[in-house]
Amino acid sequence: MRAIIQRTAQAQVEIGGKIHSQIGQGLLILLGVWEEDGVPQAEYLAKKCAGLRIFEDEAGKINRSVQEIDGEILVVSNFTLYGDCKKGYRPSFIAAARPETAIPLYEHFVECLRRQGVRRVVTGEFGADMQVKLQNDGPITIFLDTEQIMPRKNG
User: Fold this and answer.
1) Beta strand pairing call for 2-15 and 62-64
2) Is 142 helix (H, G, I), strand (E, B) or coil?
3) Which stretches does DSSP call E strand in 62-103?
4) What DSSP state is assigned to residue 97?
5) How many helices (H) and strands (E) does the chain have?
6) Are 67 and 20 in contact (CB under 8 A)?
7) pLDDT tens digits for 33-49?
8) Are the beta carbons of 76 and 132 closer than 8 angstroms?
9) For 84-132, what is each residue's pLDDT tens digit?
10) Is a pLDDT exceeding 80 seen at residue 56?
11) In the 8-state DSSP scheme, what is residue 43?
């Protein structure tokens, strides 16, 4: 799984010109699911995202998580995170999981964030044409890829 995590002052998703979901201070997570991902990747990445210490503490140091600041999370599915641009100019998305695999893992990731104690977790709509708006705070943007940060048991 891949996630682009942006610290936000506010963020929202619009679908068909109407606000579908919105948050105040917290994280916007763009989530891509790889064809070989499973439950362990969703659980590991959710724990990592919820625990990321990218908010300031009382001393102004980046040392607090979204849980510690009582923040919110907006999760938006984004298969284009698995776009392969090695050949030509048109990305290939063959490595992105098909909906029958991606949807349950996306939903499990969201549920895992909720179980981590995040006050409020909202989502976009899987597969919809969404307009995502955010006020990036910092700006702080982190890229996580379970292939790089999570040990694999089988290979």
Assistant:
1) unpaired
2) strand
3) 62-64, 72-77
4) P
5) 3, 8
6) no
7) 999 999 999 999 999 99
8) yes
9) 999 999 999 999 999 999 999 999 999 999 999 999 999 999 989 999 9
10) yes
11) H
